[in-house]
């Protein structure tokens, strides 16, 4: 495993444990070889694709567990929007998801100021607007939920892109 959403120099880019679970395949590995095989090609290909596509909005989609073993407090958000310094798209996204009646995490359940390496590198560093979305896993565990969320995310992303273009 290699966490593509973290900087290369972050120890958690190749974690040996996650939420108290040991990741045997990451113990004692050649870190440089793993970065060279997965992390760098991914970011190189993404950078090249984004340069060619010149998107009006970059959307990243991740999911999060309803709870953590290491921090058993409830994670009540249905969706979270992460951002670091550039909140142009995030603020629109938060408002639009709230209009669906959802509990939206503003930099929750993770902080985009700590866990946002992909968007920092490919969006913020290049002045590109982005919408980093986290959906709670129990809501997308089955096909019906996936379809509902796919439609909702597409609608929100279109609206955010339009709002940014109009600004």
From TrEMBL:
Pfam families: FGase. This is N-formylglutamate amidohydrolase.
């Amino acid at each position: 495993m290699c966490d593509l959403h973290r900087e290369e120099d972050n120890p958690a880019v190749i974690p040996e444990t996650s939420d108290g679970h040991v990741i045997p395949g990451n113990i004692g590995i050649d870190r440089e070889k793993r970065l060279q095989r997965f992390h760098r090609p991914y970011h190189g290909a993404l950078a090249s694709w984004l340069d060619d596509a010149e998107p009006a909005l970059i959307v990243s989609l991740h999911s999060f567990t309803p709870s953590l073993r290491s921090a058993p407090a409830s994670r009540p958000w249905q969706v979270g929007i992460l951002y670091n310094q550039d909140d142009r798209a995030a603020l629109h996204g938060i408002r639009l998801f709230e209009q669906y009646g959802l509990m939206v995490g503003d930099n929750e359940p993770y902080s985009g100021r700590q866990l946002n390496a992909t968007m920092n590198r490919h969006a913020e560093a290049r002045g590109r607007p982005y919408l980093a979305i986290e959906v709670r896993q129990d809501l997308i565990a089955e096909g019906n939920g996936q379809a509902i969320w796919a439609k909702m995310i597409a609608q929100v992303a279109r609206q955010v892109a339009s709002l940014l273009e109009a600004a």
